[in-house]
Amino acid sequence: MPRTKGGIHTAQKRKKILKYTKGFKWDRKTKKRAAMEALLHAWTHAYRGRKQKKRDFRALWNVRINAAARESGMKYSVLINKLKKADILLDRKILADLALNNPKIFAKIIEKVK
Predict the structure, then answer these.
(1) How does DSSP classify residue 21?
(2) Closest CA to 20 of 6, 40, 50, 47
């Protein structure tokens, strides 16, 4: 029986992998084995980065809220505590946006919880 080498299926698999490595440097964009290893690392970092992004944004929002709250003479932790006790259901993303773009509305919120 003659030997079959895979031909079209192997080429299709290689083409699929190399499609993802467009823009990589050196052999990682042209050689299947190097490309596969580079992709495994890249996808791992991408997955971890999506989780890290959420943490980074929450930290940024906290800093913005704290800065705006301290201008009104209140600490961040005290503000968040009073917001919860007053049943004001604004998340940190919205509060940070208000603090940055609408300081008058943010000041009204702080006056309400004082």
Answers:
(1) T
(2) 40
In this prediction the pTM is 0.77
Domains of the chain (ranges; CATH) run 8-113 (1.10.1900.20)
Alpha helices, H only, 1-114: 7-20, 32-71, 76-85, 92-101, 103-113
Cβ partners under 8 Å of residue 37, min gap 6: 28
Q: Whole-angstrom Cα distance, residue 18 to residue 14?
A: 6
Judge whether 113 and 82 are in contact, CB under 8 Å: yes
Cα-Cα-Cα-Cα dihedral sign, residues 90, 114, 78, 57: positive
pLDDT in tens, 10-57: 899 999 999 999 999 999 999 999 999 999 999 999 999 999 999 999
Q: How many residues does the chain have?
A: 114
CA 37 to chain CA centroid, nearest Å = 24
